[in-house]
Amino acid sequence: MPQYLKKRRGRYYVRVAVPRHLWPVMGKRDVVRTTGTSDLAEAKRRRFAIIADIHEEIQRAENSDPATKTWLEQQAAAIRKSVVNGDLDQQAASDMIGYLRDKHLKARGMSEDDDLPANEVQRLASVTRLAFDADFSPLSGLIEQYLDEKRADLRPSTVAAKERLLNAFSHWTGDDIDINDVTRKVTGQYVSQVLVGNGKNVKTNQDAITGLSTFFNWAIRRGSYEHANPWTGLGQTLGTSKRGSSKRQPRSWTDKELKNLFEKVPAGPRNYLREMCALALYTGARQNELAKLEVTDIDLKARTIHISEAKTQSSVRDIPIHSKLLPVLKKLIGKRIEGQLFDTFKPAGRDGKRGHEFSKRFSYWRDQTFPETLYEINERGHKRSVVNFHSFRRCFITACEMAGIPEPTTKQIVGHTRDSMSYGTYSKGVDMKLLRDAIEKLDFGL
Description:
Elements: E1 3-8, E2 11-17, H1 23-26, E3 30-34, H2 40-63, H3 69-84, H4 90-107, H5 118-132, H6 139-150, H7 156-173, H8 184-195, H9 202-221, H10 255-264, H11 273-283, H12 287-291, E4 298-299, E5 304-307, E6 317-320, H13 326-333, H14 356-369, E7 375-377, E8 383-385, H15 391-402, H16 407-414, H17 421-426, H18 432-439
Antiparallel strand pairs: 1-2, 2-3, 4-5, 5-6, 7-8
């Protein structure tokens, strides 16, 4: 592959030619990158690293898997781009899409001469249309684009949930439908045929419709969907459940359960179970808020805990330290002046949360320690606990109500949005002295 420096508008650029068979893959005949300098000697020095990066990009294109639908769509989109840019004429583009279709089928153990399955015929027709029809917007391709944008802003687990939801709908439509062919009739059929009667509760199915509607709103803003959102109002057709149920919902720990728990829960750096339980009970903080605390977040002199990063903006807050937590925190900190408060907690799980492994340890310990009366069998036949680590937060909020603490004050302590006009808009909240007076009213007898 020839490579050389070229000068444009006073600066030097590196150019590396792309092998012909990769033109449709990369959508270009050569790769041009700036060296960022107008000095020839410096440009020559920098070019080697730039060339290495370009060769790595070309190698990735070479190694992409032609058996996948994504690969074929990417090649078709690249061909369309090359045609629009004038790099390929219609005949060359047609030859290339034929070559790519053959390569894709061969990688899947098939050929154009076979009696292909209906979904494979549809896929091939779709990519051919994608290569030549500038107005064709395949649903599956837009889903990939949407998810790629969301990965920068959302937690990996949230993106994964969106991916499952959207791909399920895309697969139901046949994978390669033009997004503008998704009409109100199509979405109504999906609700009737898939969501209704799927065994999930109304709220879960309404959340699914909301997620699909959010994606279509994004497509409308991008100019890819040309109609009104076809999901609008469909959640209301599912209704709401007004029936009561004898099934128990997640709840607070009872006084007896708390006493039993703290008599048995182990302490110390091996798992920090007792320390985390005590902090959750007397602060109402969430598990991951506590798990990622730093030593510098604890001010023993001012008797405050600073939550610097949390679920929402209202959750970033200072919590007064209850007098019963002071000895726990002093022992945790010891002589340290910095570092993690719980120094054995490491980022883990899909979202890299420090509380991930602790959550597993707590659930295992609870399952081994407490009787079956703390569980129920849900409608799917799965065993579910009605008390969990979040039950400490429920205990705290319930105790605040029983102690007569005003709801806005409780919301300020636990990090809930104070959403009324008076307290949510105009008030900045009560001062730390009043928060401390409020929290000292709580006594769980432990």
